[in-house]
Design brief:
2 domains, about 20% strand
Length: about 350
């Protein structure tokens, strides 16, 4: 009788164990399915520069102008992604629009160098194979991001600069314009103001002023195939000299993309983003430490970069479509879009 009871207990324990196994397995599968369901079909995040952007300095009209431009840029990228287009095309076309807008420090709205020129930089990186292309210091290529993509896809190099980059762009059939195309009265006045200030406090001190370096544009996209692309384009720093190049065209500093972690586009004081490889650092925290995109972005931008004295921000998204837009300046023109959301923000308190 006792032996029979023992056997019955063993059978009961066996069935309970099996029940637990299948139950736990089902819960795990449900969690995985839930996680996959939460991943958006596609996503894009953009920025139009970070810096001293305060409500008190912005008229209602100018506020609306920026929000409308950011919204239109997102809609351009969204259309490509929603129709099954590649993240590369989405990033390129979105940045093209921002390069053609005089509101941003890229392309048509680029700032002036000390010599009164517009020297443009851009880069793009594809997360699937980590191929990348960049150009620096060009003066006659209408859309620098197009040149960066051409370097990535049609050359054996990663970066071309100056006259060589311009010659390459022309041979690739890209639109070449007279340098006067980039001139806007707003940016020209900014240069004159910068030169006046230079007489009082000197060039080396002046370049630390945030008013002379924000406005870079960038985009990161995740397409339906799960491929991430990041791109950045800029006119650099007002009153810059000596063919200075910032972080925007530097892979790992201003731009980075890897399908296994995330894509990043940066904006801010480029010298700091170069020194501390900000874009790559965020991906590295995810890759080696297992940090989430939000954790990595917050630490690198709002702790490490602040401790080092750098200002600016990034827009980023990971392989699951999670989005982060951390910055440590007063504001950052930014926004993102998914199949169910479209968000545009400017100020720190948004």
């Amino acid at each position: 009788m006792i032996q029979k009871q023992v056997n019955m207990n063993k059978i009961l324990i066996f069935f309970l164990a099996m029940l637990c196994f299948f139950s736990c397995n089902t819960e795990e599968q449900t969690a995985v399915a839930s996680s996959k369901a939460e991943r958006p079909e596609y996503a894009m995040v953009i920025h139009g520069g970070a810096g001293t952007i305060l409500r008190k300095n912005m008229t209602e009209e100018k506020d609306k102008e920026y929000r409308d431009a950011l919204t239109q840029a997102l809609e351009i990228g969204q259309k490509v992604l929603a129709e099954g287009g590649s993240s590369i095309d989405a990033v390129q076309k979105t940045i093209n629009f921002m390069e053609d807008s005089p509101l941003f420090n890229a392309g048509k709205g680029a700032v002036f160098t000390n010599a009164g020129l517009n020297e443009l930089d851009a880069s793009i990186m594809y997360g699937k194979d980590q191929n990348a292309g960049a150009i620096g210091g060009v003066t006659n290529v209408r859309n620098p991001i197009n040149a960066a993509r051409a370097v990535m896809e049609k050359s054996e190099h990663v970066m071309l600069t100056g006259k060589g980059a311009e010659e390459f762009s022309k041979k690739q059939g890209l639109e070449i314009v007279d340098p006067s195309y980039f001139k806007t009265e707003r940016r020209w006045k900014s240069l004159q103001k910068a030169k006046e200030n230079e007489e009082d406090m000197g060039y080396e001190i002046q370049v630390l002023n945030e008013d002379y370096k924000y406005g870079t544009v960038g985009a990161v996209a995740l397409d339906k195939e799960g491929n991430i692309c990041a791109g950045t384009s800029t006119g650099g720093m007002t009153n810059k000299r000596y063919n200075r190049i910032g972080d925007a065209p530097i892979i790992g500093a201003g731009t980075f993309a890897d399908n296994t972690s995330c894509g990043v586009s940066a904006t801010g004081h480029g010298e700091y983003f170069i020194r501390y490889t900000v874009a790559r650092d965020i991906a590295a925290m995810m890759e080696y430490k297992g940090s989430t995109l939000e954790e990595a972005g917050e630490y690198i931008i709002n702790q490490k970069l602040v401790e080092k004295g750098g200002s600016g921000g990034v827009v980023a998204l990971d392989k699951d479509g999670n989005i982060a837009m951390p910055f440590n300046s007063e504001g950052m023109y930014r926004g993102y879009v998914t199949p169910t959301q479209k968000v545009v923000k400017i100020y720190k308190d948004e």
